[in-house]
Amino acid sequence: MATMKQVAERAGVSTSTVSHVINKTRAVSEDVRERVLAVIGEMGYIPNAMARSLKNDKTRTIGVSVPDNTHAAMAELLRGIEDAAFAVGYNIMLCNGYEDPQRQAAHLRSLIEKRIDGLVLVAGAARANEELAALLSSGRVPVVLADHAVAGVDTDFIGLDHEATGYLATRHLLELGHRRIACVAGPAHEPAGSARLAGCRRALAEAGLALDPKLLVHGSADCQGGHDAARRLLGLDAPPSALFACNDLMALGALCAAREAGVAVPAALSVAGGDDLGVAAFATPRLTTVAQPSHEMGRRLTELLLQRIQGDPAPRHQTRLGGQLVVRHSTAAPQAR
Amino acid sequence: MATMKQVAERAGVSTSTVSHVINKTRAVSEDVRERVLAVIGEMGYIPNAMARSLKNDKTRTIGVSVPDNTHAAMAELLRGIEDAAFAVGYNIMLCNGYEDPQRQAAHLRSLIEKRIDGLVLVAGAARANEELAALLSSGRVPVVLADHAVAGVDTDFIGLDHEATGYLATRHLLELGHRRIACVAGPAHEPAGSARLAGCRRALAEAGLALDPKLLVHGSADCQGGHDAARRLLGLDAPPSALFACNDLMALGALCAAREAGVAVPAALSVAGGDDLGVAAFATPRLTTVAQPSHEMGRRLTELLLQRIQGDPAPRHQTRLGGQLVVRHSTAAPQAR
DNA sequence: CTGTTAGCGCCTTCAG
DNA sequence: CTGAAGGCGCTAACAG
Asked: Which residues form the HTH cro/C1-type domain (chains A, B) (predicted)?
């Protein structure tokens, strides 16, 4: 691959002149400039960003560590990050951590070797191991945390307001007149799910109700988990008239279980989810849910990170972005008995 | 950040010795080795991969350009790539091209500046513009093409066998006894969709049938497109008894439309899709579809690319990976009339 | 077994 | 307006 030196020779100028025409970093006579540009075109010269980075100590690359890019919400977040980064000429290095601190640490180590300018970390529920925590808090790389705090890592954070999500969905069910409301939650230790559950409880409490322990079922945070949980709830002696599933996947699973149990939605059971995946709008029936601004979260995280990279000394930033209730056809007033 | 030189000074040795203990690239006396390692630990020294790459001309980074990482199939593919790359110590630079040749070219240019070792390109349906094509065929970077050929770029290719997918799904419907089979297809120019449609036609032809033009509806390749197409089909004077949607999103949309039209699935209408998204198994009813080995495709693409990077001169490789029919509850024999 | 040296490709003073 | 020279951090001959 052509180098600047070769370009310089062929154009009969010094490398510094070539450098300056490329970067417009000092005045160059018009004819020299044109000649150099012509040679660059002919030779198909493309500057070597590594050599450049070695000098500047800036790679214009940011690392992104997510638990799993196939989760719809992660994918959306990732897209927000990539969009915001591209807009200012940065590239993204993607790492799937799979909630495995070992793997995450290996990734991060590699990213640091490659001297990323910053890191967007979506940690997931797993606790960071010692190595990962050390790398993160060593301050070698600016880090912004997405949606999940990481114990011992005190840095900028932008997340979703999961508590509000649970609250909004549940209040919607209450406003429809439901009183016997179940919650289908993910694994108990998972922070996002726990917050949504807490929001659910708060809404219930405001209505003078408490969540019946029999109506709270934990399961895996996917369709299968939602399906199994709903089936259990529908088998109860006194089944709920409405159900809040902590995320859309679980809600979709619940819808599936209801249909298989011959329970009509929303006539006999209202179901609300949270996320607003693309397919939720076309579920049977179309799912009422709480849309999350995942793309925006990615964008804002990136903008924040870029500010830190530029040395912005502002105090630690922490926000949670609210979701929006989207009422569709899976919820309705309870049937008269 | 600590440099090798600093480590060398502090350990009282030369940088080359430090280099050699790090890379185990020549014998070093045990005590010196230990001393160096100790200093590395103390100082938290992490080698600078850029400086290293400047010498080797290898970055251990591969670029991945996809149309949009939020599409479920892309996400799965991407994960396959990342997994395979991580397994051999490579990192991934992710770019979303959004079917925009301009943006793709900008990304590729940036990746070349950063001297990626290779590129996995998922081109999408859009035609490459001049700049992009030039960059791709200039041979500066080994490229493997995923699923979509690119005009003028003659290189390794691994895709999905979309034709077989259409064939399998349609033959399944035929074997159930359907004769009036509709096809819900994506945009006419889209290669994957067209191939699935062709497979559908082939299965029909083998059964001595032809696809009734009225029963072929093109639309956007998402839930909305599938929904609208199905609604149109169900409004026909002689509606189909079965329907093959070229992908799961469209199939899910079709399911939605059927329910809204009061058409029971599978009693009055069988629906088959193609992809096997995670949610397909929990659709109402659970969707019969053709699962695609997207993850495997990503893995194989990466392995192939890595071979090319290592200079493997084997002739151009071209494969299409077959999908697998997954029969669930959205298809059944046609109702007697 | 260890150190010295010469770059990798680029930017950036410092001179002219 | 232009060129020469030094150095970013690391590796790999080449000496000893």
From this structure: 3-46
